[in-house]
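Aim 2 progress update. The chain analyzed this quarter is reproduced below.
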Amino acid sequence: MLKSVVCSELGAKHGSFLVTIMGLLVPWSCTLAMIDMYSILVGCPLHVPGVMAIVVVGDWVLSILSLAAASSSAAVIDVLLEFHGSHCAPRLCERYQLSAMMAFLSWLLTAASSLFNLWYIASR
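Predicted structure tokens:
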């Protein structure tokens, strides 16, 4: 009984943390994509060093948070599979695994963006 309560609480807390972080990451990334598209369409680069420093710091912070969310979701999946075993609904476990994979992918892309922008600032 205690194991099922612990697993359901872990699943609920994991989901809210992951949703919160991705809720921050998606608008941030979409805003940067729109700014880049505007810059390409207008033809003037908006790569001012001060603005790029804000982008690097924002990418860096969100990259760390998305890594934390991905790691916690992977840990919750491990706990759910270990405690529940065959009692874990297959669709639920698959959704948790998919969310962890996508969170790690978003972390990888955000970290790459941060490093690329940092390199861009250093080269100027």
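The longest helix spans residues 2-42. The chain has three helices and no strands. These observations will guide the mutagenesis experiments scheduled for the next reporting period.
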